[in-house]
Design a protein that fits this description.
With 398 residues, the chain is α/β, with parallel strands linked by helices. It has two domains: 227 residues, 3-Layer(aba) Sandwich (Aspartate Aminotransferase, domain 2), CATH 3.40.640.10; 143 residues, Aspartate Aminotransferase, domain 1 (Alpha-Beta Complex), CATH 3.90.1150.10. 37% of the residues lie in helices and 14% in strands. The longest helix has 31 residues. It is globular. Bound molecules: pyridoxal-5'-phosphate. The site of pyridoxal-5'-phosphate has 14 residues, from helix 3 and helix 4.
Length: 398
C-alpha cells in the first residue's frame, strides 16, 4: 500500500477529538466564574479555589499565576537566583525552561539528556557545576519523571536549589515520589495544550514559606494579596492568573485521573502492538524507577534501519501526519535557537544526545491516546511507513 505521503490512502481519515476537551462541565465552570462577579485573584475567586486544590494535592504553598513561563521566572527570583548566577537546564525542553533563567539575569547552562528518558543526565549536570551554579531545573519531559533522587542528591552536594519544570506532567512520580512534593520549587503550566488546560495560566509550588511569600508579592505588583493601598513591599509584576482560566483548570482537575487511566491503558496497548516492529525500541518506555508516567506525549524513535539511511524525524512526522496520526518533531536543543546560538556564555558544551533525540524522535500528543483506535491505527501506520523506508528517502530528497 503506497504511503499517504506519496498519494496513497491514509491509515485513518477521521480527525481525532480536539484538545482541550470542551464540554458541559467546562462551560458551567466558566459561567459560574462569570456569575460570581469575582473576576480578580483577590480573595474568594476560582483562582484561590485552584490554589487550595493544589495545596491539598501537593502539600506545598501554591501560587497560581499567568503562565508556566512566569512561574519559572518567579520561582527563580523568589529563591534568590539572579545576575552572575548559572542554572543547569536540560538541552531538550521548551525554550521557557532556559529563557526564564535569562529573564532574571542569570545564565542557563545546557545539560545533555539521558537518551532513555529524554530528561536531564545528572552525571553530565554534575560535571557542569561551577562556583557560579545556583540552581538546577529538571524537566519532566513528555510526562517522563526526571530522576528526582539523583537530582536532589546532586543539589545537596553542591548547595543548589532544585526547581522542577512540571509543565508537561501533573502526577508523574519517581521511585514513589510525586513530582512537586520533594524539591524547593515546582512549576506547572495550564496552557491550552497541557493536561490541565485553562487557555493560559500556571502555578508555582514552594517548600519554603518565606520564598512563597516573596513569590506571592512579586506576582501581585509587590504588594500583599487583598491590599488596595500602595504598600508595594517589593518590585514585582502583574503575574496574576485570570479567574476564568482558573475555573477551567479546576473543571479539568475533576477528569484528570480518569483520563490518566485511559492514557495509561492505551499506551500499553500501543506498546504491545509495536512489539517486534523496527527491532523494538521504537517507543520511549517509562524508566524502571518511574512509578507513574503521565503520557503527556508518546515519543516514537526512528528505527536504526532508517536513521542509518539518513531519514530525519521531520520526515517521519510528515509521513505519520499524512497517515492521519498527527505528529511533530521534538524540541531541538534550545541553545541552538536564534535567540541563543551566538551567545558564548550559553554555548559552552555540545549536547549531542539532545541533538540526536531531536533528529530521530517524534511526539504524538496525549489526547490521541484517548481515542479507542489510536493503538491499532498508529501501529498500522508505523508498520506501513517503516516497511516503505526507501520511499521515505526519495520523498526526503525531493
Ligand atoms: C517544558 C515546558 N516548560 C515551560 C513551558 C512554559 O509554559 P507556558 O506555556 O505556560 O508559559 C512549557 C510550555 O509549553 C513547557 O512545555
Amino acid at each position: 500500500m503506497p504511503l499517504a505521503l506519496l498519494g496513497g490512502p491514509p491509515t485513518r481519515t477521521r480527525p481525532f477529538a480536539p484538545w482541550p476537551s470542551v464540554n458541559t462541565a467546562t462551560r458551567k465552570a466558566l459561567v459560574a466564574a462569570h456569575d460570581s462577579g469575582m473576576w480578580w485573584q483577590n480573595g474568594g475567586s476560582a483562582a484561590e479555589e485552584l490554589e487550595a486544590w493544589l495545596e491539598t494535592e501537593f502539600g506545598r504553598r501554591a501560587i497560581a499565576v499567568s503562565s508556566g513561563t512566569t512561574a519559572l521566572e518567579l520561582a527563580l527570583v523568589a529563591l534568590g537566583v539572579g545576575r552572575g548566577d548559572e542554572v543547569l537546564v536540560p538541552a531538550c525542553t521548551f525554550v521557557s525552561s532556559a529563557a526564564a533563567v535569562s529573564a532574571c539575569g542569570a545564565v542557563p547552562i545546557p545539560v545533555d539528556i539521558d537518551p532513555a528518558t529524554f530528561t536531564l543526565d545528572t552525571g553530565v549536570a554534575e560535571a557542569a557545576v561551577t562556583s557560579r551554579t545556583r540552581a538546577i531545573i529538571p524537566v519532566h519531559l513528555a510526562g517522563h519523571p526526571a530522576d528526582l533522587a539523583a537530582t536532589t542528591a546532586l543539589a545537596r552536594r553542591h548547595h543548589l536549589a532544585v526547581i522542577e519544570d512540571a509543565a508537561q506532567t501533573v502526577a508523574a512520580s519517581w521511585a514513589g515520589t510525586r513530582v512537586g512534593t520533594a524539591t524547593d520549587a515546582t512549576v506547572l503550566s495550564f496552557q491550552a495544550a497541557k493536561l490541565l488546560p485553562g487557555g493560559d495560566g500556571g502555578a508555582l509550588l514552594l517548600r519554603d514559606e518565606q520564598a512563597a511569600r516573596r513569590a506571592e508579592l512579586l506576582a501581585n505588583c509587590g504588594r500583599p494579596r487583598g491590599s488596595s493601598t500602595y504598600d508595594h513591599e517589593l518590585l514585582g509584576t502583574n503575574a496574576r492568573i485570570s479567574v476564568f482560566a482558573a475555573a477551567l483548570v479546576l473543571a479539568h482537575t475533576r477528569t484528570y485521573e480518569h483520563m490518566w487511566r485511559a492514557r495509561e491503558g492505551q499506551w500499553h496497548a500501543l506498546a504491545k502492538a509495536l512489539v517486534g516492529l523496527g527491532n523494538g525500541g521504537l517507543l520511549a518506555e517509562p524508566h524502571p524507577e518511574a512509578t507513574r508516567h503521565d503520557h503527556y506525549a508518546v515519543l516514537v524513535r526512528l528505527p536504526a534501519s532508517l536513521t542509518e539511511r539518513g531519514v530525519h524525524a521531520s520526515t517521519l512526522a510528515a509521513a505519520l501526519t499524512a497517515e492521519g496520526i498527527p505528529a511533530r518533531t521534538l524540541f531541538p536543543p534550545w541553545q541552538t535557537a536564534p535567540a541563543y546560538r551566538d551567545d558564548p556564555q550559553v554555548n559552552v558544551v555540545p549536547t549531542p544526545r539532545a541533538a540526536e533525540a531531536a533528529a530521530t524522535t517524534v511526539a504524538l500528543s496525549h489526547q490521541l491516546l484517548l481515542d479507542p483506535y489510536f493503538p491499532t491505527q498508529t501501529a498500522s501506520a508505523l508498520t506501513k511507513i517503516i516497511t516503505a523506508g526507501g520511499d521515505l528517502i526519495s520523498w526526503q530528497q525531493i
